[in-house]
Each structure stands twice: as structure tokens, then as C-alpha cells.
Amino acid sequence: MRKTIALCGILSALAGSAWSVDSEMDTDFMQSVDDTNKSLASTIADKDVKASLAALKELEAMFDRVEVFYKHKGDAEDAVELSKKSKELSIEIEKLVQAKDFDSANAMATDLSRTCKSCHNFYKKS
Amino acid sequence: MDANNTSRRDFLVNTGAGLSAAALAGFVPGLTSSSAEAATFVDPLAPKPPQFPAKAKAVIWLHMNGAPSTLDLYDYKPDLIKLAGQEVPASFLKGIKTSTQGGVGKIKATNRTWKQYGQSGAWFSDWLPNLAKRADDIAFIKSSVTVGATHNISILKLNTGDVVPGRPALGAWVTYALGSNNADLPAYVVLSSGGRGLEGGSVNYGSGFLPAVYQGTPFRLGDSPILNLDRPELTTAAQQRDNLDLLKKLNEHHATRYPDDTELQARIRSYELAYRMETTAPEAVDLSKESDATKELYGIGEKETNDYGTNLLRARRLIERGVRFVHVVSGEANGVRDWDAHNDIEKNHSAQAKAVDKPIAALLADLKAHGLLESTLVVWTSEFGRTSYGQSGTGRDHNPWGYTQWFAGGGSAAGTTYGATDAIGLQIADKNQAVDTYDVHATLLQLLGLDHLKTIFINKGRSERPTVVFGKVIKELIA
Fold this sequence. Notes:
The complex is a heterodimer. Chain A is mainly alpha-helical. Chain A has helices at 2-24, 27-45, 49-73, 77-98, 102-123. Chain A has one domain (26-123): Cytochrome c/b562 (Four Helix Bundle (Hemerythrin (Met), subunit A), Up-down Bundle), CATH 1.20.120.10.
């Protein structure tokens, strides 16, 4: 009996995690990504290393979630690839910010924004 | 001070304080500023140097309102003619979401004839016989993309870089960054030729979160460009000056209570500017001193071209007098209100093309003759293009996936073409060459000597720039 209860618990936890992956990709989440990206553009323009790195860490975690969501959803290879590319770009920008090369970081941040946008062209619900 | 017992001296002292407070009121020039940083009053419209040597000093922004089918003007596609009447092959629709009312129609070709012009060999249809002769002045962007839900949204994005109201128009950013070259005229003027007009209204030339002093000033067609600008008949010039002086003092006194109210500051300036404009604006738009040959060149006096030609000749005169950014919106032509040809594209585009072809060709020739084309960037733009497939049998739907815009003058790469669309002109051929509205803005600013990434205004703690978080300078468009 105890084993059955434990199994049910594990299954509902798994179901819950699948559900939460779905529910996390809502408008609010995408708005948070958009807002954090705008903050990043601002903090790079301000040459604020600490705030830029914080925004980049947030973005990297968000892109991880986007990647997991689209892997789970299936039939969305482009989105998985673009999420990966977004994370890679974020890591590159992080290096540039740490080196205080804000001009290059600024230019690469526009690449990151374009990558987000190309994903939206295919997957954003209208 | 007891407000009920104010002496004339108190009033004047406080008015002086008002002037000091105006210094703190938020007009902060320079490219990284906020409304709260001003320590001393500096004219917000004083000319400012570009960030690096500029190729262009001024911009004429020609918005083709309603979205022309550039496929029928510049983008010659033999396959479109070959496949006309057939269903669109699935390969052409891959990756796009169509939402055409009544569904995607069959591939449509209009009754055009095509020829190559100039040394560049650029293609033009028979709808633009005059502009075709200026082929070598033009740098085409044949891989334009945008967001194409509705006209309002896409026009707003075209003018402000965002799909929701609240951001400054491009002309406002330019004015903020470079100031005015003529204290007696607005730095940013909007000329409209009637018809549907900008449905979104003044947000398309507003200053958004920038101080209101940078917003565009609409001029009307007719002899009196600004409503109520003329001095009332029964008021003498001296009386008017006295009235304005009093009004200015009262407004400045009032402004001390609202030091962050840039609208109020802009209003104080606008009264003074309006006073100066009573003489300068009518002269700037008065075409009576232009030669008959010039008027004829622009099509002034001809029914189809009179209004648009008048606006373009005025645009040249305004640029000549130091206006920084002239935003011209195309309008009604032969009973057709704009380029939005969901039905009967033959009738619609015949009328619209006829209205703009001769005047735009004249503008380019006239700017060149006056030695102004080198320093004036002319941008031919629209909110999106139109589909290769038909809609309702006789028209074309909106197409944000691939269309043509162009630059001329102002240091742009004359006689060149950047990007291309696919074989039927529906989508861009190479996604790496996509030119979004942000990229047009970034490239335009670059020609004006401004780095779009470093043209910054601090709004509510966030550094904002004209291209939001996007923007790429298209180097191939620069000579």
C-alpha cells in the first residue's frame, strides 16, 4: 500500500512538472523575458557590470526553460535550436561584459534580440 | 508669501524664480540625459553635433500610406507572371502565417510592363515612368520585413519602433539628438495629403517619453499651414506681443509648481515658436516665388499630382531652411484614399502611383539641382508590402514577409540594391538579409552621424534608444 502511494506521488509529481513546463510558457513568462532583455540593453548602455550580469543569468535560466518546453512539446526543432543559440549568445555577452567591452556586448545583445524575434515569427500565438 | 496679497514686485520676483525653475524643468540636451539632471537651463532645441561625421543633415521620410504593392512597382518577377492563376506552391508559404480574409488566393500578376533603367539597370514598372529616370539615385532595400497585423500597428512600428503607443517617433529622436537648425521653424514637420491619413494619429509623430518639445508639428495643405497661426485681424502686433509676454510669465510661474512637466515647457516654447512662425512658416511654404518650371516639375496645377507635389516642394523648402526631419504622408488620389488595395489594385495603384511618381522624381531632381541631395536623405517607405497571391480576385493582401523600400541621397549607396525576395516576391530570399524597420532606423541614424546604440534617453531609470533592443546598420546601404 505504501509503495502504491509513493508511486502515485511520483507520477503526480511528474505530471505536475510536465504541467508546470506548459504553464510556465505563458504570456507572463514571455513578458518577463522581454522585460529582462530590455533591462539588459539598458544596463549595458549604462556600463553597469553587476546589473548586466544579473540580467544575463536570469535570461540564461529563462532560455533553459524555453528549450525544455519546446523539447517537451515536440515538432519544434527550430525553437529548440533558437533557445540554445539564445543561451549561447547570453554566455558570450557575459564574457564581453566581464571584459568591460560594452560596445561589443551592446552589438551582440541586438543579435540576441533578433534571435528571440525570429523564434516569435514562427511560434508566437497571434 | 500670501497668495491673496501678492504685490507686483512679488509677482516679478516669483516670475524670475519661475525662469530659474524652468532651468530645472527637464530640457536636457546631449545624448544621455534624463529630465531630472538639468542644473542650468539649456535650449533643448539648440543644435548639437553628431557623434561622428555625418553624411546627411536632414531627412525626408516619404510614407506611402496604406502599403503599396512594391511587387508591381520595383520587384520584377517573371515567375509571378508565369504562375499567375495557379495555387501558391506550398514551398513559398513555408514559415509564414497567412490570415487573408477569404483565404489565400491564386497567384496574381497585374497588367504591368517592365523595363530596366539607368546604369544600375534597376527594374521599374510602367506605374513609375518618372521615378524610373532617377534609378541611379536610389539604393533599394528589396528584403524589407516587419510585423503585418494591421495598418495601425505596422505604421506605429514604422514610425516609432514599437507596436504599442508610447515610444518617440524617429523624427523626435533625431530632433532630440541633433536639435534644430532654424529657431523660427519646427525641427520636425509632418505634411499630409489628406485621404485616410494616419489612423493612429499623433502617436506616429509624437515625442513619447522624450520631452514634448521634440514632437512633430503637422502642417496643413493650403496657404495657412498651421491652424490659427495668423494674428486675429483686430489685434495689433504690439498687443499680441504684450499678450504673449504676459502669458509666458504666467506659464513660467505655473511651471515652478510642476518642474517635471515637459508638456508645459513645450507649450511655453510653442507660443513663442508660433509667434515667430507667423512670418517664417507662411514664407517657408509659400510657393509663389518658385518658378513655373519648378511647379510644373512637381506636377503642381495638375489634378492628380497637385497636393502631393505641393507637399514635396514644401518639403524641399523646409529642408532648405534648416528643418531637420520632414515626414510626408501620402494621401487621397483620384478618389482613392490610400494604397490599401484589397480590391481592384489596377484602379487603386494607377491612381496612387500617378499621384506620387512625378512629384517624387521631381523632388530628387530638385534636391540635386539645389545641391541638397548629398546632405538630405530621402526614404521611400511603407508599413508593409502586398502579397503575390490575390485577394477577392482583384486585389492583394498585406505582406510583411518581403517588400521593397529605398533610400536616396544623404550618403546612401546610389544605384545599388540590397537583398531580394523569392521567385514570386512573397518572402525574402535570404533571412540573413532581412531589413526590419529597426534596421532602417539604425541605418538612417548612422547616416546622420548617430550610433543608434548610443543615442540614449533615460526614462524611468531605464536607458532607452530609438531601436528598442534591435537595430542593425546595413552597411551596404551606405556609400
